[in-house]
Amino acid sequence: MEPRNAALRAAERMIVDEVAETAFSRSNMTALAPLMRDYQKYIQTSQVMNVSASKTTTTVEVECFVKRGELLRDGAELLSTGLVRPPTVLVLLTEHIASAETATCREGGAAEASLVKGFEDAKFDVVDRDILRAAIDEQDLVAMITGDLDAAKRLVRQTVADVVVLGESKTEAVREVASGNMLKNKGSVSVRIFRNADDKLVETLGQEAVVHSVDPLEGGQAAIENASQKLSKELVLYAIVAATSAPASHDIIVTIEKPGERSRFDSVLERLKAISTGDVEELFYSQSLARVRVAHDGSLAGLVDGLAAAKYDGSALETRQAVEHSVVVRFSQ
Fold first, then answer.
1. Residue 64 has pLDDT above 80, yes or no
2. Which of 244, 263, 285 is the last residue of a domain?
3. Which of 48, 77, 83, 169 could form a disulfide with 111 if both were Cys (CB 3.0 to 4.6 A apart)?
4. CA 250/CA 224 separation, integer angstroms
5. The domain spanning residue 114 has which CATH number?
6. What secondary structure does DSSP assign to 36-71, as a single string?
7. Over the stretch 72-101, which tens digit does the pLDDT of each residue have?
8. pTM
């Protein structure tokens, strides 16, 4: 291969590698090697902007457009086969039907149910959404789901899932003929996919669908379901990208079931500060449920034993679950 072409191929390979590494992290590049060997299939266009040569080297400047979506889809499918455990995912969507005044999220609507089924079919471990719904006021929850990036990240940090999907579903009904009763119902679903380990927004996706009906509620629900079904497969792939690209983390989420009075919860916070190796952050508190993020690079067993060894307003804590980065405790009766 002549030096110019060899330099061009090397530059193209470097660009595709950089796109893959940005999406999946450097730690996954070995597993992605089979894709990278065929890197040229992911190049849409490539144009040489400049060439310079000396006796020993040839340097090229290249403008290259990469088929990022195709690369991410293939990478996600490859990495999913090597997962040790199913990723955990939390899905929360608001629903705003055309006839309603405001968006709601107290009960999962058609879009949320459809996307959850897609994750279950893909063997994800779907986290119980009702825990957050019970702990956070509905309007506050709607504001975080649909709000700006900082608001959404505050909600992401309160969860224990590897991947958090926050989104909105809306319907709009338009009468097709002024004198008729047939309606054109447009349903739209938009979601943001977050990586919990560092609160990173991985991708934003959306879909629309149209259903004709006489009943706006029935037609709107059907349109939302159709849009969600079209979105589901792509959403699952990007969720795999988020789950497999997570950086190493020492954070542990401690969930306290039925903490009761604030003073007792505060005593748990003080105990965690005393036995952990890093910062302790209160995520949320209610008398029925509380959650704390603990930066701890020591042993999980040591943290659990340290919690169990103390009394909190005269009560002891018992451990219900301690797995990887999640601990669930409750007060013994």
1. yes
2. 244
3. 169
4. 39
5. 3.30.160.150
6. HTTGGGGEEEEEEEEEEE-SS-EEEEEEEEE-HHHH
7. 888 888 888 777 788 899 999 998 887 666
8. 0.73
